[in-house]
Amino acid sequence: MRSDVPPTEPLPFAAVDLGASSGRVMVGHASDRDGGTLRLQEVHRFPNQPMRTAGTLRWDIQALHRGVLEGLRAAGRSAGRAPASIGIDTWAVDYGLLDAAGTLLEAPVHYRDARTEGMAEKVAAVLSPQELYAATGLQQLPFNTIYQLTAAQGTSALAAAHRLLMIPDLIAYWLTGEAGTELTNASTTQLIDPRTGNWARSVAGPLGIDLDLFAPLRRPGDPAGRLLPDALARTGLAGPVPVTTVGSHDTASAVVAVPARNERFAYIATGTWSLAGLELDVPVLTEESRQANFTNELGVDGTVRYLRNVMGLWLLQECLRDWQAEGRPQELGSLIDRAARVPLLRSVVDAGDPEFLAPGRMPQRIADACRRTGQPVPDSPAEVTRCVLDSLALAHRRAVEDAQRLSGRDVDAVHIVGGGAHNALLCQLTADACGLPVVAGPTEAAAFGNVLVQARATGAVHGELADLRALLGRTVPLRRFAPAGGRAAWDRAVTRLSPAPQPNGTAQEAACA
Asked: What single-letter DSSP state applies at residue 90?
């Protein structure tokens, strides 16, 4: 490693960001000296390929761990020194079970596995949906951790478990040997009281869920240990290298990186999923909020992520996979250009319909949904793509409008962060649908938020969330889209869809980024 790094060079931080289809390790440099510095470089990317064993869909967590170690080695080479800190964020709700010796008992089950079918009804027989929402504020989603644990009751793995760790906490444990449960991810389990930030024992007890399985709660900015000697050897880093707790639910980190100028903003964290909502100081636990299927997940600095989960670009990703398998591969840029020439709102579908949750045959399922609602049936890839993007923009509008109405907070801008910020057509359609200006970027929001929390914890940057966002706004390029009008067309399109998503299983939406 180089030892001649200039002393004025901002400190490097390693952001481990694991998504549903790939993982990446980014090196970020951050400082608020001399007007501020914030930059990010991807140094290693690796696939996240689930596996099916004995009929159960699971995460290949060992492969992800190897990818993280390789990425940290690359981070050291890129920065010319060991990172000042490492932070880890991933998707939500899934977990690993460890025995008393700290050994993983089985590969973590994937949230798309069918084991949670019927679990919502089983839980409702003990705690009504109204009681559950009043206690946890979480929208009913078929794969929330509470339903996974209900499905796991009576299994040998759960019976033998000494510790349960959410996915980012499991990776951190393997790196440091120290176990903790990060709060923003824990809040997706449906076992946290969003008013107190502590476990909802009134929920866990009646359901027979042992909260002692969880490690002590940690909050973003807390220390999470240092790399073990084995991790140092496998990464080639010179210790000590601290691991810092960040918003380990990737959406929590992404919201940190929303470059809003004031609190009057809505955000849409896009990628495989779209998570659309507001940042609040307190949860909204009304029955109306439950009926609208909004969730109250905890964010960084005691904030509440009040949002609805929408299926997101998963719809288009699945279409692309199907066309590839049929021998009709599509280049995404050209496909979106052709989609832009398809008439506006020709056909739309409900992006929250559970029929779109599972993989496979997505173009056909979209066509079937249009046929059932008496709309023109999209046939070509361009028509299907336009249907997907119009439908997502319409879902974004519904979520933003409902969030304002239910929370009592008005917004004057919508921020799109994550992979969807690349999609200019989707950004423009969202501006038109919402009738609000859209600010797009950054695309690597989760990694930026991850780095910013680490940098603040080490003293490289200072201040509140507003200060972190101001630093990002000064240093990261953003794109702006003004609404082009035509609100009446979007108003009419809403009437073609079913009512807003309900928490009774008839219009479930996907929950993980």
From this structure: B
Residue from 209, 66, 72 nearest 136 by CA? 209
Dig out the tokens for 87 from the structure. 């932070």
CATH of the domain at 187: 3.30.420.40
* 17 a catalytic residue: no
Q: What is the rounded CA–CA span in Å between residue 382 and residue 398?
A: 24
User: Do strands 304-310 and 414-418 pair parallel, antiparallel, or not at all (unpaired)?
Assistant: unpaired
Tell which of 350, 368, 389 closes a domain.
389
Strands 242-244 and 223-226: antiparallel
In this prediction, the residues of the chain whose per-residue pLDDT falls under 50 are 1-7, 499-513
Q: Which domain range does residue 34 map to?
A: 12-244
Helix or strand (DSSP H, E) at 418? strand 414-418
Cα-flanking dihedrals φ and ψ of residue 143, to 5°?
-120, 15
For 149-199, write each residue's pLDDT tens digit. Answer: 999 999 999 999 999 999 999 999 999 999 999 999 999 999 999 999 999
Instruction: Encode 215-225: b = buried (16+ Cβ within 10 Å), e = exposed.
Output: beebbbbeebb
User: Is residue 434 a contact partner of residue 486, using CB atoms and an 8 Å limit?
Assistant: no
Distances (CA, A) of 177 to 108, 139, 194, 446, 479: 19, 33, 28, 25, 42
Distance between alpha carbon 186 and the CA centroid of its chain, in Å? 13
Marked catalytic residue, from 94, 250, 322, 402: 250
